[in-house]
Amino acid sequence: MAETSIFVVKTTANQERSVANLIAQLARKEKYDITALLVPDVLKGYVLVEAKAPEIVEEAIQGVPHARSVIRGASSFGEVEHFLTPKPAVVGINEGSIVELISGPFKGEMARVKRVDIGKEEITVELFEAMVPIPITVRGDHVRVLSKDEIQR
Amino acid sequence: MTEQACRECHRIVEGLVCPICGSSSLSKDWTGYVVIIDPKESEVARKLGITLPGRYALKVR
């Protein structure tokens, strides 16, 4: 049994899932030796294909819309293993950090982090512009960290 | 309709109940996408503990 390697297919941005679906469909139909396809959200414009040889992947992407090319060289499983366990969205956000809300009704507002809930991946913030400090709980991926240090006033 | 992922087995499900584990705890809020074609040969499937071919989410909220 030959060991599988990871090959990287370049795709059009935001078409990663449709490319993965089409390659999977072809692999089943044509009996290509492709064992799995991986589309991590952090890797925009790429699909990771687990197969035994690069030629198999080259052949499989022929005629697949939005699949551009196979990146030369193979990656070992260890190199992509970290994609399988996504980090919580609140990693890198600490109490006292200054953040900007990037979605929701307070989009564009700046706020200071008061509490971080790692389990729920939520943070509680207080808006700078608010007249009275009202704690607002938002999802960790709905903010952008502007400053990690607590500003002393 | 947006696809939903099973909170128990992370499988991408069409319908209201997961056909594999029977759970009705589904979520539209999922990220990361994996297609397993051959779970016996796949290192990715082994690492994720997947034994059945299909489409899966990496993270389900």
From TrEMBL, chain B:
InterPro entries: RPABC4/Spt4 (IPR029040), Spt4/RpoE2_Znf (IPR022800), Spt4_arch (IPR007178), Spt4_dom_sf (IPR038589)
Residues covered by the Spt4/RpoE2 zinc finger domain: 3-61
Domain of life, per lineage: Archaea
GO CC aspect terms: DNA-directed RNA polymerase complex
UniProtKB keywords: DNA-directed RNA polymerase, Metal-binding, Transcription, Transcription regulation, Zinc
Residues engaged in binding Zn(2+): C6, C9, C18, C21
UniProt similarity note: Belongs to the archaeal Spt4 family.
Function: Stimulates transcription elongation.
Record's subunit section: Heterodimer composed of Spt4 and Spt5.
Listed name of the protein: Transcription elongation factor Spt4
Upper taxonomic lineage: Archaea, Methanobacteriati, Methanobacteriota, Stenosarchaea group, Methanomicrobia
